[in-house]
Amino acid sequence: MNLEERQLNSLNKLLAALNGSQNGFYHKKLLGLKKVESLAEFRERVPFTTKDELALDQRSHPPYGTNLTNPLTEYARLHQTSGTSGQPMIWLDDPAGWQWVIENWKWVWREAGVQQGETAFFPFSFGPFLGFWAGFESAAELGIRTIPAGGMSSENRVRMMERLRPEVLCCTPTYGLHLAEIAGNASSFGVEKIIVAGEAGGSLSAVRNRLQDAWRAEVIDHHGMTEIGPVTVGDREDPSFLKIKHDSYYCEVVEQNERGIGELVVTTLGRHGSPLLRYRTGDLVQPITLEEGFSLKGGIIGRVDQMVVVRGVNLYPGAVEEVVRSVPAILEYEVIFEMRGEMREVKLRVEGEGVAELELKLQEVFSLRIPVEQVPAGTLERYEVKAKRWKQ
Fold this sequence. Notes:
Largest sheet: 9 strands, mixed
Number of helices: 11
Distance between the termini: 48 Å
Structural class: alpha/beta
Mean pLDDT: 93
Radius of gyration: 21 Å
Strand order of the largest sheet: 4-3-5-6-7-8-9-14-13
Number of domains: 2
Shape: globular
Low-confidence stretches: none
Number of strands: 21
CATH architecture of the largest domain: 3-Layer(aba) Sandwich
Strand content: 25-35%
CATH superfamily of the largest domain: ANL, N-terminal domain
Helix content: 25-40%
């Protein structure tokens, strides 16, 4: 079967699982739909699912909502979204759904070229977000030695890495740069690969180059969400692209602009216990058609709810990050938006040198004068997980 046939077969298995189940959330949306004859019919007959709908459903039916296909007693895993765009959502998985997530993360490890017997270092406290719980457990199942480094300072994590010399580091791009800043000599630690996620960076050449130079390691991007699981991994032949696991996810890109950038919409094909059909992720992407399916050029470009218009110019977090990281002397930064009368203005606060160089590059890229203010070292917050530099 070709990809379209495989996806259609998986979609009809999902619809069959939902039909007759106790999933109140999708009973209302699917109106008895049992089968579709094509992907086009699926897109036509199945409405979008939004984060606002899911959040309202959990508020109306606390604490877990009604997007549960099985009896509550069958769910063994609880995770929670990061809450970057509202109140965190709780997400439950039955054993079959959790194993599906694990198998998708195994694909990330394999695509990254990580081998059985190598060591992966996880320098953060996991908390309730799905993120690297799935990465950690999938690595253990593959025979990759896992080092949990939660509950300790960044300095102690650096010392632990220096002593144990793991081949793989898993972190956000921001935290990878912060650890390198603390270490001073991170390139001597023996790290060969850095798998990054949680924010724009791994698919952006300026950020990727900064990490590679600091650690002398290959940087591999990856993205996913608690509610959908691990969706993509960086293409090692061309790291500016993210490859999608199309046999696990039916993906669409909607409302594309003149540059081809639109919102990623995802259907989870194997997570029947807590499914998502045509879920509007809020991620802005640029799809490039392949022989089967498509890949994402430039990774996750930004978020629908984070794109800001300043004097007619669309500013995306990923685009600003690319410019900032192209100036090596900049250590950390934040972007501040303010209203002056009816006009929105933007400025950057940075630690490090290179203010004049950064202002010039911002002007060249965005055709917009963006003031840059230098602040003393240690002024700006450092982040272990998703950075929150976009101050609106």
